[in-house]
Amino acid sequence: MCLAIPAMVVELCGKDEALVDLDGVRKRISLAMVDDVAVGDYVIVHVGFALQKLDVGEAEATLALLREIARAQQAAGEAGPAELP
Amino acid sequence: MKYVDDFRDGTVARALGAAIRAGARPDREYRLMEFCGGHTHAISRYGIADLLPPQVRLVHGPGCPVCVLPVGRIDQAIRLALEHGVILCTYGDTLRVPASGRLSLLRAKGRGADVRMVYSPLDALQVARANPAREVVFLAIGFETTTPPTAVAVKQARAEGLGNFSLLCNHVLTPAAMHAILAAPGGVRLDGFVGPAHVSTVIGSAPYEPFARDHGKPVVIAGFEPLDVMRAIQMLIRQIDDGRAEVENEFTRAVTAEGNRKAQALVAEVFELRDAFEWRGLGTVPASALRLRPAFAGFDAEARFAVPAVPVPDHRACECAAILRGEKRPQECRIFGTACTPDNPVGSCMVSSEGACAAHYTYGRFRVEAAPTETTRT
Amino acid sequence: MRLPHSHPLDLEHGRIDLSHGAGGRAMAQLIEDLFARELGNEFLAQGDDGARLPACTGPLVMATDAHVVSPLFFPGGDIGCLSVHGTINDVAVMGAQPLYLAASFVLEEGLPLAGLARIVASMAAAARAAGVPVVTGDTKVVERGKADGVFITTTGVGVRLAGIDVSGANARPGDAVLVSGPLGDHGMAIMSVRENLAFDAPIVSDTAALHGLIADLLAAAPDVRVLRDPTRGGLAATLNEIAHQSGVGIVLDEAAIPVRPAVAAACELLGLDPLDIASEGRLIAICPAAGAERALAALRAHPLGTEAVRIGEVIADERRFVQMKTRFGGRRMVDWLAGDALPRIC
């Protein structure tokens, strides 16, 4: 349910609107649900609206944790192929 | 795709799978319900079940707004279009949902109904602006994620004085459905919930506290990417083994305890609770859906047109109710894959690709049907 | 000798009206000044109800395809070139050299002549580039509202290449599955300009005539067993068709399947699976595993196949399932699409 995807804000246009970019795909969306969005921010897009800003610091922290768990598991010797990102 | 592909990394997933296999106790079963269709979809599409130990049993929940939409509500929309001549706007998801009399919105279109697919509720407003002489009804579905955009559209319609726009509101509430599952007569065997991703960006993590506190069921809110789901499963297993029942948040990059206050305020301004609402599969659930507030009654299609929702009983052989509660698996239903397929769905779980039955049929049925005669398979 | 037309065809502001299909002078003028001028060749010049063609050696292949597309013009092409490529490809994937095309037009009253002229010019250019002339044709006009601008049906005739036996029924366990390039460009290019979805994307249709690529492939690898172009329903539908026809299973390797980043991103935005999205200039080839590298090299040596890769293998499976090893090391089915590929929100 609730298909949504993070995209980067590349332009603020008019009242409560922004242009977002996802790997070259650009779409105009509404910012009516979020405050203080700036160019360069990532927002989570659902039915043409930004649902929420994506907290980049938290995203990186979660990724670091996932990779650490994976690394520790590899060190414990049970995982598959060697190179982790 | 930044912050998307990173959470789909297969190498990390395999190691994480190994960590889950190493960490889960071999002497017990973990029955975990992923409430959302988004999680069901990720689990099926990425083949996550193959990376988990056999004692982890994933139970697919009712969190797919298309699946839980009762036939009577689609009938209502079809009658609005066919009998009242309105332009019926809706999301692509609802177009193929089977209704009474072998109809669907798509088939009604073939009979002359003016049905238009929109990507956003704001597109429905645009249709209303472009067709001032026609009545335009937006068939709104969805959980807490999809409701605030509808609220914005209704407010915008009022601000513009768009008198030919109205809403057929089917917005439903996640915590109410989770309560209904846990309150099923005879109880339900679940050890924890993988909590909603995008619903939680709006409502926050706090509304899940009662499930942990009162029902003793741990909840881990998780993003919809496959690594998010796997990490949440690992966190749930830890809680269960530790004897804890807490609300934890894996999806910290988008979910806070309080959620999106601005979105909540928009919804509160435009909508109010319905006393009860019929869900496909779950039956009538108290305080589980929204309707327009009296101040917006002029935009309520149900008040504007005489088209009451007439309840339609589910097919007798259909096991959707038991499947939605996690009591049965799709393949345990007599009509699964025979009378009921994604092309001709009978039950609600077969309707959307996120439904438990459709996901199993589309992505997973090779697991349970007779194995192939292996000659060259590696 | 030219017919005595009172006014020249107004290709700038004119529109199709019912007289253009009524068999009178207006129709003759349209055919002469637009269709014949653009598509002109010795067979069309015969001016009869059909074309008299030279004898050809070898068994014939025939295919027909109705082209309806909205919008008529899209990034990377239009209905004109698409109607040439589509039928040439249907003939070519039969292991045949396409020779001639017939084209039938259904025009909607009110269609701007300027648009029609662009479409016919695009068709003519595509036919010339492919070396496959349109040798006969027909035009009908229907009232406004009874068609969507223009529908073009093309029929192609070709001659089977000697020693080649390709069919959707020929896949055998152990065979390799190859694809000539990234999937879904065409379908997503069209969606990007649909009125109700509009998004900007650096995506252009892959529409192309594949007979040259196929000829090169078959010359290098005559043991190729199956050729198909993954149009409607995308790779998923095409492979399911082949699995059913051949009575086999297919296992794909998700990590190997080429999809351009923008197409993948647009799919994410719309809730679609790239495996279900149409291509109009891509080739699926199935060949014995031993010859796979040779076939791949031949594909990559052609401009339309530079990004060719091996994406899976044929297995024995009485259930005729198409499966995929996911990037995660898990497995899933790749099923036919239920219904149409509709954008979804959940």
Automatic annotation (TrEMBL), chain A:
Signal peptide annotation: none
Superkingdom of this protein's organism: Bacteria
Pfam families: HupF_HypC (PF01455)
InterPro entries: Hydrogenase_HupF/HypC
NCBIfam families, A to Z: hypC_hupF
Family according to the record: Belongs to the HupF/HypC family.
Descriptive protein name: HypC/HybG/HupF family hydrogenase formation chaperone
UniProt organism field: Thauera sinica
From TrEMBL, chain B:
Keywords: Iron, Metal-binding
The keyword Amino-acid biosynthesis belongs to this UniProt entry's keyword annotation: no
Pfam families for this protein: HypD
Keyword presence, Metal-binding: yes
Chain coiled-coil ranges: none
Signal peptide: none
Highest taxon above the source species: Bacteria
Membership in a protein family: Belongs to the HypD family.
Listed PANTHER family: HYDROGENASE MATURATION FACTOR HYPD, HYDROGENASE PROTEIN ASSEMBLY PROTEIN HYPD
The protein, known as: Hydrogenase maturation factor
Native source species: Thauera sinica
Phylogenetic lineage: Bacteria, Pseudomonadati, Pseudomonadota, Betaproteobacteria, Rhodocyclales
Gene, per the UniProt record: hypD
TrEMBL record, chain C:
Domain PurM-like N-terminal residues, every copy: 48-159
A Pfam family it matches: AIRS_C
Domain of life according to the entry: Bacteria
Database matches in InterPro entries: HypE, PurM-like_C_dom, PurM-like_C_sf, PurM-like_N, PurM-like_N_sf
UniProt signal peptide: none
Boundaries of every PurM-like C-terminal domain copy: 172-324
Family in the record: Belongs to the HypE family.
Protein name (database record): Hydrogenase expression/formation protein HypE
